[in-house]
Structures are given as C-alpha cells and as structure tokens.
UniProtKB/TrEMBL annotation:
It holds the Pfam family Oxidored_nitro. SUPFAM superfamilies: Helical backbone' metal receptor. The keyword Iron applies. Binds 1 [4Fe-4S] cluster per heterodimer. The cluster is bound at the heterodimer interface by residues from both subunits. It catalyses: chlorophyllide a + oxidized 2[4Fe-4S]-[ferredoxin] + 2 ADP + 2 phosphate = protochlorophyllide a + reduced 2[4Fe-4S]-[ferredoxin] + 2 ATP + 2 H2O. Residues 25-368 form the Nitrogenase/oxidoreductase component domain. This is Light-independent protochlorophyllide reductase subunit N.
Length: 423
C-alpha cells in the first residue's frame, strides 16, 4: 500500500510560513534583465533586506515602492504615484526588459489593482514587458511566489507547434547545467522557464511536453495546460531514485532507447547511490516529522523514507496536488500522516507528542523546539541549496544528517549538557 490512497488531514488554521515575496531572492538571479518592484510597506522592504542580505536602496534588481499613509487612506491617486515611480525606475535603469509589479498585500488592502496597472504600463514602453503577480503572505506561502511569477509569464509566451520538452522551475545554475547534460546525452535539448533574458523565454504549444523541476508549481502547471502543453507526471528529481524516474518519464515521452538511457545514467546513478549511502548512515532507522513550509515536503519525504531509510511520522505540505505529487505519494509506504495546510498549534502538539529524531520546520519554530530538546532542520535551507539531480543527492542527504551528527557531537563533547532528543 502507498500513501497516495491514504486520507489527507486537511488543516485550515494559523500558519507559520514565509510569504511569497522571498522567492524574489532566487528569481532575480535567473532573469538578468528583470526587475522586481514590490508595491508594499516598509515592513516588506525590511523583509527583503533581511532575506536577501542586501540593502534595498542599493537596488540590485529588486526594490520596494513604499506605500505611505496617504496612499492607503486614498488621499493620493495611487495609479499616478505608481506610474511616476515606474517612469523614474526605467529612466534610471535602461537595462530593464522585464518589470514585475509584485503585490505585498491583496488589492483590497493596498487600494491598488496591480493587474490593471501592469496592463496599462505594459503598453507604455515597447522595450519593457510589465507583468504582475502576488507575493502577499495573506495569499501565498513561501515558494508560491515563484509559481505566481512563472504562471504570470505563460500567457505571454509565443506559440509554437514544434515537438519539444519544456522544463518549468528556477534551478541553481550548476543544477540546470547538470540537467541539460543529462537530457542532452539522451538526445533531448530542453527549453526552460524562466529562460533568462526577455527574448530567451520558451514558446509553448500543443507539441510541448513539460516536466516540472519544482513541486510547488501548481498554477504554472495549469497555465501551461491551458496553452495546450502536456504534463509528464513523475517523481521529483531528488536523490538517485527520484532523478532516475524523472528522467525516465521524459525519455519514454520522447522515445529514447533503453540502452541509451542506461548508458547515460549508469555512472551518475552509481555515484549518487554511494553518496547517499554514506551521508545517510546517521539517518537509517530514525524518525522524521515534516512541517509544511516549502511544498518540497512530499518528494523529500519519499527520498528520506526510500533512499535514506528513515521512518516518516508526518509529512505535511501547504498544498497537496494529486496530479503533481501523486507519483511521489505512490512510492511512499502507508504509515505517516499526510497533512495539507496547517493549524500550527495542533501540529506542534502532534510533533511534541511524537518526539521524532528529526523535525523539519520553519525558522520560527526551530529554536523553540530545539530548546525543548528536539533536533530540527531548517526547511528554508532546502530551497536555497542545490539539491536536485544525481550530483547533489549526497549533499541533500547530508543536509538532514548534519543536525543529528551535530547533536551526537555535542553529547560527546559535553556529557553534562541536557539534550533530550528521542533516541
């Protein structure tokens, strides 16, 4: 029996997650001619300063158009104010070719319809594409900012009839290079969304088959399907097993010979298996509890259970999309609680009762749980670290084993320290 048939515990209470604005931190690196203009408060500016480790006023390629009290009170024409700030930005930064207006709150709160503003501004400068999406913590969770951004781009992609593979999802450069090498060895040259510069974004059409590189791209998935593209369901490329099954789904869709597939993947698969086995020594037989944070939890739960020998107590994700997460759920043995959404107090009670060997959670919960004697892993690290495909498989296992090794080292170095993590 697999977890895909298990009932889902749906919770709709208080959440403890980052908002979607933080996805700008990695998205702006993938699109060198883009600028992300957050329309929000000084709080949003401070959040991006802290999350990115840079000063907003230095304007790397994102900034905040700060709403003052007069804007929120309706004493000023917010559209005129926004138009003026955008004109100043584009005059100062003529290199911008893609401008994203990112809402930090719903339109009802900021008193400004950014979707209509983007449509108006998009026609005012023929050299700049202006798009809008929401990064609001009220409307989005941590990684949904990327999903909203890519989904906003899909309707404007050119149309093509040619047969092609599109890979959706922003990946670190080293990971994307590995993906291209593997697919190139199979005779497949993928197009990628986002495609870097404005002129490099892929075209899409009925001949397009697409694979998701990230498990949090539900809106992007739906937008591509509406454009006529066909989704290739597969486990996500975490670890040796996930990477192999992801590549196999693509290979089968494009008629790749099995002998060629084995020749291309045999050596990196073997390296990945060895690396995971070594890094997972501290994980085998241990229990893990995954709080909902990044929407990576389901494929990571599959990786930890099947490749690292862990026992999952609970696997929780902000959202569960059967069409996207089904292949991973189908591989996870029945046993762990599968939870969607969050009621943080109820979930904390379950985590405290379970006292798993490792608790994967957000920054806001990690320190309090550590103080209670639980060993934790920051979920945010799993988003900002290269973790996809074969060459990163051992590093991915190491991210989970490191907290356990650290606690074991503390016990050895300081025998009098009171550490109550479950044995």
């Amino acid at each position: 029996m697999s977890l895909i048939a298990a009932p889902i515990l749906r919770e709709r209470g208080q959440r403890e997650v980052f908002c979607g604005l933080t996805s700008i931190v990695w998205l702006h690196r993938k699109m060198p001619d883009a600028f992300f203009l957050v329309v929000g408060s000084r709080t949003c500016a401070h959040l991006l300063q802290s999350a990115a480790g840079v000063m907003i006023f230095a304007e790397p390629r994102f900034g905040t158009c700060i709403l003052e009290e007069g804007d929120l009170a309706g004493l000023k024409d917010a559209n005129e104010e926004l138009d003026r700030e955008v004109a100043r930005l584009l005059a100062r930064r003529p290199d911008i070719r893609q401008l994203f207006l990112v809402g930090s709150c719903p339109s009802e709160v900021i008193k400004l319809d950014l979707a209509k503003a983007a449509e108006r501004l998009d026609g005012s400068n023929p050299d700049v594409r202006v798009l809008n999406y929401s990064g609001s913590g009220i409307e989005t969770t941590f990684t949904e900012g990327e999903d909203a951004c890519l989904a906003a781009m899909v309707p404007g992609l050119e149309r093509t009839e040619r047969r092609q593979l599109l890979v959706a999802g922003a990946l670190p450069d080293a990971v994307e290079d590995e993906m291209r090498r593997l697919l190139g060895g199979l005779g497949i040259e993928p197009v990628v969304l986002p495609g870097g510069r404005a002129g490099a974004h892929p075209a899409v059409g009925p001949g397009t088959a697409f694979a998701l590189a990230q498990p949090f791209l539900a809106e992007t998935h739906d937008a591509l399907v509406r454009r006529g593209a066909r989704h290739l369901p597969a486990p996500f490329p975490f670890g040796e097993e996930g990477t192999t099954l992801w590549l196999r789904a693509v290979a089968e869709a494009f008629g790749v010979d099995e002998a060629l597939f084995d020749a291309v993947t045999a050596a990196p698969r073997a390296r990945a298996r060895r690396a995971v086995a070594q890094a997972a020594e501290a994980l085998r037989g241990r229990r893990v509890f995954l709080f909902p944070d990044s929407q990576l939890e389901i494929p990571l739960g599959r990786f930890l259970v099947r490749e690292c020998g862990m026992e999952a107590v609970e696997i929780a994700s902000p959202y569960v999309h059967r069409g996207i997460h089904g292949p991973d759920l189908d591989l996870i043995p029945e046993g762990p609680v599968l939870a969607e959404g969050q009621d943080v107090d109820a979930q904390l009670a379950r985590a405290r009762g379970a006292r798993a060997d490792l608790t994967v959670c957000g920054l806001g919960l990690a320190n309090p749980l550590e103080a209670e004697g639980l060993t934790t892993k920051w979920a945010i690290e799993l988003v900002f670290s290269p973790v996809h495909f074969y060459e990163q498989a051992g590093d991915l296992a190491g991210l989970f084993s490191r907290p356990l090794r650290r606690r074991a080292a503390l016990r050895g170095l300081h025998p009098n320290v009171r550490l109550e993590a479950a044995e």
